Amino acid sequence: MVSPVIKRYLLALDRYKWPSLATFLGILGISAVVAMQPPTPPKYRAEGVLVQNAPVVALTTTGTEVQQRGQGIISEQFLLADVLLQQVSQELARRGMPMEPEAIRDRTTIKLEGVEGEQPQVQRVTVVFRGPSEEQTQLTLNLMFEAMVELSRVTNRARLRAIITALDERLPAVEGDLRTAEQALEAYDRTQGPAIQAALDGSLLGAISGGQQQQRQNQIALAGLDSQIQSLEQQLGLSPGQALTASALSADPIIAQLRSQILEAETQLKLLSPTLRESHPTMQELRQNLAAYNALLTERAQEVVGGQGLAALPSVSEVRQNSTLDPARAALANQLVSLSAQRAALISQQQALNQADGQLRQQYSSLPNKQLERDRLAQQVALNQALYDQIQAKRIDAQAAEAETVSSLTVAQPPTVTIQAETPPNPILVVAVGALLGIVAAGAVVFLLDLLDSTARTAEDIEGILTDQDVPLLGQVPTLAATSVQGWPMLYQPQTPDLEIYERLRSSLRRVGSLSEAGVAPRVVLVVSSRGGEGKTTSAFNLGIAAARAGRRTLVIEADLRQPSCGDRLGVKLDPAAMAEPLHYYAGRQQSPIQLAPWVENLYLAPSPGPQPHPAAILESSEMGQFLVDARARFDLVLIDAPPLARSNDALLLGAASDGLLLITRPGITDKAVLEALLEQLLENEDLPVLGAIVNAADSTATPSPSEPAPAPAPPPLIRSIDF
Asked: Residue 707: exposed, middle, or buried by beta-carbon count in 10 A (0-12, 13-18, 19+)?
């Protein structure tokens, strides 16, 4: 017996023979082309070694640093720089051996050997170049060595010049910062230096103590002056301001003259008033003169004592009274004014001393901050000076390093050329290996395409899915031979050998029903498939023929209202009026939808009035329900040929009227993923039990198209029914 794996692979090989053949011929052709290639010309290999270089005498720090950095940047990208390859290519072209820079790069291999660390340095560089001729190979590597050494030297010198340029660019700014810091320190010393120096030599503390001593002396003097002023005020009965006013008025001769004139006018008025009337001209003249004298006295008093003194003399009588000091009282008034002036001077001096003392104390308290500010400015100057000196020293060192700057690489081993001749491969061996690889690749292509195809190709694939889902396999039907010119595999004749196969299927179906919970054989069976072309209608017709041949009244109902009727396979014709009125048709108002098959005894058929635009509405109608109830009562077995489940859910609408479901499958047509999903959905529906499954064309080794006639019949193998 052939292994299922081998059988599946043979089927896949038959399906994908053209892709596999194309793969085999393609690889074989490639190997033949490779075998027919002429022998490759000899190749030349030039190899040389560059090592780390250092100056003979290193006197500068910058030169040593530049040299070390030049060794640190040595890499394959640096040694095969575009500018280097361009120079080598131009030199080769000038000497009559042109070669593109990219070709030089592709033919060159560089191996770097050095010391590992945080900054790995290259100690040895091995350069290998492969060329078409000995002369060109030798010349190319020599030119590359010269260019690599020169590139390293130019890079080091350029880096040194870059350092000098950077220092020159930075030096003016650093020098400017230094000058600014020095100017700031100098300006601070000019403004705050004396105060700081005074604090440092103790003169500031001396000034503070001296000011305090002077204030105490002034306070003593003020106390003495206050006592003298108080004594004089008691003697004179005048304040210092009043004493000043009285003294000034009494000393003025004009005020004295005006006072005498006023006194004379008043005397005359007093003497003449008893004898003369007020309207007398003399009296009026005297009064006018008196008023003029009083006005002049007031103006003169204003001139003598000023506005503030005049404000203290509201009337002429007060002016006359304050201007009549005798010499003794005038001397006391002058003494009181003098003492008052001395007191005011001492008070002003005391205020100035207090203000100076506050300034000195504030200056003394701010001395630490001033000292710190000066230290900060001095430190800033020192830092800028140190940076300026460092840059100057670095600049001088870098300028001196120009004389000792050399390349970081030197030639340790000049290029040497060796010839590399390759032995051509054996053409027969190449073709044989190509044929073997072609066979393996063709097989892999077939296997890959078969993995990508989800169609069940063998009966074993379908049986494995049914077993995983616990669905009984009622039997396997071989490929049936055509029994009519139309290619229908219908078992019309009683002596047909394949009829026994469907008889066993019918028996297995009855046994499944008897073992169910109901304990009775199924009377109405729903025959479904996952997709079209799996032989569902043929299986329903042949199973009905087998049941009718066994003496049971059997009815086959075509319930696929989306397709036309197949009743002509059993010699049954459909009335055209049934398609126009399908509900009247199933209700039996036009004619009975059940017709006797003329070619098989006890077999009846209810042809489909399809195709219909709304098949679901017809299947759910009360006419269809009553029709199925009558069919269950009249017939021993009712087979409902339902639509494929992958196309619509019409078959599930008839589930309530049936006793179970019979699933039809076929290798080469059934999709494994669709079948698994369909079985999971059906098994979840407890109202519609799955009675079992049938595998059609179980012995097929090819996949005929559903529209093509079935192949010639082969000897049917023994059917495997389920084991109860």
From this structure: exposed
d(CA 245, CA 310): 9
Q: Is residue 602 pLDDT above 70, yes or no?
A: yes
Q: Which fold has domain 509-695?
A: Rossmann fold (3.40.50)
Per-residue b or e along 484-502, where b marks 16 or more CB atoms closer than 10 Å to that residue's CB:
eeeebbbbbeeebebbebb
CB-based burial label for 26 (10 Å; 0-12, 13-18, 19+): middle
Q: What is the pLDDT of residues 154-201, one digit of tens each?
A: 888 888 888 888 888 888 998 898 899 888 888 888 887 776 666 656
The partner residues of 411 in beta bridges, in order of sequence, read 50
Residue 266: pLDDT band (50, 70, 90) is confident
Say which DSSP state 408 is in.
S
Amino acid identity of 82?
Answer: D
* pLDDT above 70: percentage of residues in the chain: 85
Q: 52 pairs with which residues across the strands?
A: 409
How far is the CA of 408 from the CAs of 68, 71, 117, 152, 258, in angstroms? 8, 6, 19, 6, 119
Tokens 């066979």 belong to 439
* DSSP string across 33-102: HHHTSPPPPPEEEEEEEEEE---S----HHHHHHHHHHHHT--HHHHT-HHHHHHHHHHHHHTT----HH
Q: Tokens standing for 648?
A: 């619509």
**651, 656, 662, 666: CA torsion to nearest 10:** 20
Whether the CB-CB separation of 456 and 665 falls below 8 Å is answered with yes
Spatial separation of the C-alpha atoms in residues 262 and 296, rounded to whole Å? 10
In angstroms, rounded to a whole number, what is the distance separating the alpha carbons of residues 193 and 400?
44
Q: pLDDT by residue (tens digit) across 128-164? A: 999 888 888 899 989 999 998 888 888 888 888 888 8
Cα–Cα dist 319/246, whole Å: 8
Instruction: Give residue limits of the domains in the chain.
Output: 4-38+437-452, 43-173+407-420, 509-695
Q: Which of 30-39, 268-277, 309-318, 653-662 has the lowest mean pLDDT?
A: 309-318
Q: β-strands 524-529, 108-115: how paired?
A: unpaired
pTM above 0.70, yes or no: no
Task: Specify the CATH number for 43-173+407-420; select among 2.60.40, 3.90.1690, 3.30.43, 3.30.70.
Answer: 3.30.70
CB atoms within 10 A of CB 191: 9
CA–CA distance, 354 with 219 (Å, rounded to integer): 12
Question: Residue 572 contacts by C-beta under 8 Å, 6 or more apart in sequence?
Answer: 595, 597, 598, 605, 607
Reported confidence tier of residue 693, pLDDT bands at 50, 70, 90: very high
DSSP state of 717: P
Q: How many residues does the chain have?
A: 724
Burial 145-168 (b: 16+ CB within 10 A, else e): bebbbebbbebbbebbeebbeebe
Report the run of H or E that residue 114 belongs to, with start and end: strand 108-115
What does the pLDDT read at residue 204? 62
